[in-house]
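Hey, does this match?
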Amino acid sequence: MPLASHRQTFHYGSWVFDIDRAQKLLQEQPRPVVQTPVADWAAAYHLHLLTPDYDGELWCPVFGPDQSHFDAGYAMQTDLDNPVIIATMQFDGNPALLLIDGVHRMYRAMSEGLSTLPAYILTADETAKVRVR
């Protein structure tokens, strides 16, 4: 998994995750790829609203991109064999998963009707290491 030439980050509210750091961690600590459900992530990130011809009311996602930060054309060129990265967060002592890398791939997979995508899942400790604020 090559590192990008620019710093990649994912923002969730005031939290920022360093995707380059996550990719480096995954290179240093390999793990099996798992399959993650496209429909669940597409629904959580409201990816159906990111169509190029969307003409509905303006909306603000809780997480994930809005139209001003999303390129559907780029999404359709992404490599679906490249695993997405899922972070494990802790809320009130309970684990919760958060897609931090691969929203464009998830959009393409949704558009093409795929049921799963390959994924790497970071532990809560690893997620803390890649969260920069």
User: Anything to note?
Assistant: The first strand starts at residue 9 and ends at 12. The CA atoms of residues 74 and 123 lie 29 Å apart.
